[in-house]
Amino acid sequence: MLKLFDAMRTEFQHFVEEDRHRTMVISCSDTDIAYPLKVLRDVEASNPYDVYMIFCDNFTDPHAFADVVMERIREEHAIAVEWQIKDGRVPLGDLPESLFDPERPPIERMAEAVDTVRAWFPPEGDNRLVWVLAPMEIKNADTWSQWGQQLTAHFQDASWLRLMFRSSAKLAKLVEKGADNKIPAWVKQPNVRVYGCDFGPETIDQSLADQAEDPEEPEENRMNATLMMAIKDTGYNRKDAAESKFMELLAYGQRTENHAMQAMSMMGMGDLNRRNNDLDQACYWYECAVPPSIESKQTFTMFLVVKNLAETYFAQKRYPEAEEAYLQAARLAQAHQESESFARMIDGNARSRAKQKNMTGAVDRWDSAALICREFEHTDFLKEVLKELKKGYEQLGNREAANQVAAEMATLKAGGSA
């Protein structure tokens, strides 16, 4: 995975810094667009000289998209003016009203917006403007492609501008196949670069395998890639492959005194055995993972280990141990500020108490879980908790409390708030 991101980062940096291409078309799916956007933010953060304007709102029609972009520019302008005033500088002038004229063609408004932001730069500088139009979703691909064509043509001589324009995932495949008759003419221009972003399962698997086996990679990076592969093997229940990787990771963790890796590999062995219904072995590995997780001082790792241990105790019908483990997991979730996980662990503690015929204690815990869900608006889980809370009150013979919970459940079902 790291190599995929490093390669993408290098591509983006070269595109911005070199003058070989003025437009880059990022070809990727709706599912994958978040990855290049994240890398672009990283590139922006590492480059204090160039100005990045990144717009990723959904594209439904040109007028609506132009309206959204102009509002984003209004926000950026207001922030810049406020900062300049606080810093004792002369603030930027007002934005042209023509930017917000809905009667103008959207592409004209977009072109004027680029020129307007460019005018914010100091005249003596050589700063570049990187204008990124990368909607998370594109509803009208043909109209969107026309925008790319028109903007590229309008700014073809602007050496200070880099246009980055998102397109569908199939474009890169068409370019790779040389299907010229299916590729828009403007994309084939010499100043346009098509870059395909593929984060499909096969690509990720191959990238992880390459990183894990690359002798030039630092050992820590290779082991992190191996861990991700082991987790994926577990997900597909490739038992032998997963076990081999987890044992390799455990040996590495012990040799380097990496307590977090020791805990993750042991927990991985627990997950693998639990997936294969060997609860005794799963419990053994989770219990082994507790000490190194504590040594790692990583709260979330500790939480995951103890949570899995609690669930395994419960599945084994070891309810006293499950009750205590769920309580410890709840405390760790609270420390990590994971409110829904906190509520779910309190619910587990309540279920463990109920299995031990301690319905009074169970109701007390379910009531606490309900309070957490109300405070943090975890409505879906609140409905589950209230169902158990109502049953608990009924078993205790408290009809009044049961009726109050039933009324709250009815309000939630009708779409109201608790």
Can you give keywords for this protein?
2 domains; globular; Tetratricopeptide repeat-containing protein; Serine Threonine Protein Phosphatase 5, Tetratricopeptide repeat; Rossmann fold; TPR-like_helical_dom_sf; single chain; 418 residues; alpha/beta; five-stranded parallel beta sheet
3D architecture notes:
It comes from Sulfidibacter corallicola. This is Tetratricopeptide repeat-containing protein. InterPro entries: TPR-like_helical_dom_sf (IPR011990). This protein has 418 residues and is of the alpha/beta class. It has helices spanning 2-17, 34-45, 62-86, 106-118, 141-154, 170-177, 201-213, 219-235, 239-256, 259-275, 279-296, 299-315, 319-335, 339-355, 359-375, 379-395, 399-413, and strands at 23-27, 51-55, 129-133, 161-167, 192-196. Strands 2-3-4-1-5 form a 5-stranded parallel beta sheet, sandwiched between helices. Helix 5 links the parallel strand 3 and strand 4 (161-167). Helix 14 runs antiparallel to helix 15 (359-375). The chain starts with a helix and ends in a 5-residue tail after the last helix. The model has no long low-confidence stretch (mean pLDDT 91).
